[in-house]
Specification:
Elements: H1 6-10, H2 22-36, E1 50-56, E2 60-68, E3 75-84, H3 94-108, H4 110-113, E4 117-121, H5 126-132, H6 138-147, E5 151-154, H7 157-161, E6 177-187, E7 190-198, E8 204-211, H8 217-234, E9 239-244, H9 247-254, H10 265-275, E10 280-285, H11 292-303, H12 324-329, H13 340-348, H14 357-367, E11 370-373, E12 376-380, E13 386-389, H15 392-404, H16 413-423, E14 425-426, H17 430-484
Parallel strand pairs: 1-4, 4-5, 6-9, 9-10, 13-14
Antiparallel strand pairs: 1-2, 2-3, 6-7, 7-8, 11-12, 12-13
Length: 490
């Protein structure tokens, strides 16, 4: 919108003559057309990612923040903004303009982005540029500190279309073949329907609904079939195979069975009319045990009392292959280096599995102090010196080399850690590990010296005893010889 209104904005400058040109008239007509069909804004839904479309031009930027609906088929606008770059900002490179536009959008939309994961769609990836630049200038450092607070992931349009929440804005391939499974359930708690649309790639799109009127089991089956067919029509599917465990519904729609119940005739006729929207459709009857997923959805929707003010929360089903106490008894061995999560975030913008929003925020802030050069990770020191990050094995070799290597002086823990930093190496527990090594080496030295002193004292005692015995032997020999040898007086 800022680029569209550019000719009119020029007339608002000081000392500018007001001349209504053809460009101004085109801009005015474009504004009128836009106001005739304005965007309908909706509030965001918690638990779903936001999608930010960012457009950067030479003198302005535009941003639209949206979100997919519960089916993933449509996107709704939440907020949109535009801004004209200042004279200084307009002289940035296109990459820096994109970074500046993203920081401006994040600052204006903070109340939306702070509680949601945001997918960024733009021509250039500004996240990678900001967090992987070795030399940080003033504005890049400012953008880095601002964006580290938000969970923003760069995505391409193709990535979003191929994800588990597909967007069918243009419709699928007319030649692709889809599947549909439906089921209905009636019990003492109520009535519900469940359906699953299977994409050609094998992804499952579930649909559920609770029937708020009294009905029989056959009517519930018809309702499930008809609603699932309507959803397939909305997705613009042309070739589909429909599966259901109700032989009555499947065979009546196919015309193989006669419909005698008066209440089912309107359902049958309406279902047949809906099938005319497809180029090719086939109906199949399957056993009940092969329709477990749709049956589970229908049973759940019939038993769950829906609160119209709130949506039904997402239910995740995990597969546990072992008893719970086994997980508590076993120790998890992690052979990855301490900087693995930081490296993966800087390299691929990936978070560790199961990370909470607080963990993601902490990882983003921690990663701002690191720099990745190909496969080598560096820690950016406070004086902008890059320190190479090493794992536990390399750290042990470095500590032993500095402490007792060729030029080792057996320093204390603090001095050893300072030498590591001056040499250009870094790991998180550097100083504590150096202290532990020093204490261990001192204990080993003390034990070695104590053994040597003990051996020396034992040898000294043995030498003293042998010396005393030699003196006694000499005196005995002298007295014996003096008695036996004749004495001469002349």
């Amino acid at each position: 919108m800022t680029a569209t209104c550019g000719p009119i904005f020029k007339l608002l400058r000081k000392n500018q003559g007001i001349v209504w040109t053809e460009d101004c008239q085109k801009a005015f007509d474009s504004i009128k057309e836009y106001l005739m069909e304005p965007l309908i804004l909706i509030p965001p839904v918690e638990g779903r990612p936001l999608i930010m479309y960012l457009t950067v031009l030479e003198e302005s930027m535009g941003c639209v923040l949206g979100q997919q609906d519960e089916t993933g088929r449509k996107e709704h606008a939440i907020y949109y903004l535009s801004k004209k770059f200042t004279d200084c900002e307009s002289r940035y490179s296109m990459l820096e303009k994109t970074c500046c536009a993203l920081s401006l959008a994040a600052k204006c939309l903070r109340h939306y982005l702070i509680n949601h994961t945001t997918w960024l769609i733009s021509k250039i990836d500004p996240i990678k540029y900001i967090f992987e630049k070795a030399a940080i200038t003033g504005r890049i450092a400012r953008w880095q500190m601002l964006l580290s607070e938000y969970d923003i992931e760069y995505r391409t349009q193709k990535t979003i279309k191929d994800c588990d929440e597909p967007v069918f804005g243009e419709g699928p391939d007319p030649e692709s073949k889809w599947g549909l499974i439906f089921d209905g359930a009636v019990n003492v708690n109520g009535s519900g329907i469940g359906a699953i649309i299977v994409t050609p790639k094998g992804a499952h799109i579930p649909f559920t609904a609770r029937l708020q009127f009294d009905c029989t089991n056959n009517i519930a089956e018809y309702e499930a079939c008809i609603i699932s067919i309507e959803e397939a029509i909305d997705l613009r599917i042309k070739n589909i195979d429909i599966y259901g465990d109700s032989a009555l519904v499947v065979n009546q729609i196919k015309g193989e069975w006669e419909t005698r119940h008066a209440g089912l005739i309107p359902y049958r006729d309406y279902a047949r009319r809906l099938l005319t929207f497809f180029n090719k459709v086939e109906l199949h009857h399957i056993p009940r045990d092969e329709n477990q997923m749709a049956d589970a959805l229908a049973t759940l929707s019939s038993m769950y009392r829906v609160n119209r003010r709130n949506e039904v929360p997402t239910i995740s089903i995990r597969c546990l292959e072992r008893p719970a106490y086994v997980f508590a008894a076993e120790e998890v061995v992690d052979d990855k280096p301490w900087f693995h999560d930081i490296k993966m975030f800087l390299q691929k913008q990936e978070y560790p599995p199961g990370a909470s929003n607080k963990d993601k925020k902490t990882l983003r802030r921690l990663s701002s102090s690191f720099f990745l050069n190909e496969e080598v990770l560096y820690k950016r020191n406070f004086d902008m010196v890059l320190l190479r990050c090493v794992d536990k094995h390399e750290a042990d070799l470095l500590m032993h080399e500095i402490h007792e290597g060729s030029f080792g002086t057996h320093p204390n823990g603090h001095t050893m850690a300072k030498k590591m930093l001056r040499a250009g190496y870094y790991w998180l527990t550097m100083e504590s590990d150096c202290y532990k090594l020093k204490v261990t080496q001192d204990k080993e030295t003390f034990l070695l010296l104590s053994h040597k002193i003990g051996d020396f004292l034992a040898q000294a005692h043995k030498h003293e005893t042998s010396l005393l015995e030699s003196h006694k032997t000499r005196d005995f020999l002298a007295s014996t010889l003096s008695r036996r040898l004749p004495c001469s007086n002349h």
